[in-house]
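Hi support team,

I submitted a single chain yesterday and got back a structure, but I'm not sure I'm reading the token output correctly. Could someone confirm the output below corresponds to the sequence I sent? I've pasted both exactly as they appear in my results page.

Thanks,
R.
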Amino acid sequence: MAFNLIDIENWERKEYYEHFISRVVCSYSVTVDVDITNLKGQRLYPAMIWLLTRTVNEMQQFRTALTDKGLGIYDELHPMYTLFNKQNEKFSGIWAYNNPDYAEFLKAYEQDVEQYGECVSYTPKPNTPENSFNISMAPWVNFTSLNYNVYDEGKFLLPIFTMGKFREQDGKRLLPLAIQVHHAVCDGYHVGRFVELLQQKIEQFPKD
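Hi R., thanks for writing in. Yes, this is the structure output for that exact sequence:
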């Protein structure tokens, strides 16, 4: 893992970063419908975890973080996703390595589900990478908006993704996806670009 520090004084985003990290501390959430028709027949959750991870790793705005080392950009992020335990109605956070090969990623996912799927603790899988980001799914709710309130002085810069219950409409299968980001490092343009790239990857699946 590499964490490349940003030279803030010479950073083209300095003015925007300082405004939204200090003066008007601002994170925001955008909920969009993603067309997942091309994923019919696939296991939706692991496929979307993989697709989100591949897209995140193509955009540095979604890999920018503020750590004890300072402000910088991870060269790679790994997904931390939730598994729901139906018996105790609680969830656990499980992480996986970013893998460009979906078949290999799916195999690792299935192994983790078998090992940790019935755990009762929040983070049963040890050694969560520092460079991980959060993904979850609420397949019981077809929501139109979702927002997290992160009480950390407004300095959590990595994205948070939440998927809901998909619906069938006009011959398409649509999945609500909430994308939460920090305005200090990510503007609406970048979110729009992310959604565009994600949709392209869904259409190409599993050829990516």
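A quick pointer for reading it: The mean pLDDT is 94. Let us know if anything else looks off.

Best,
Support desk
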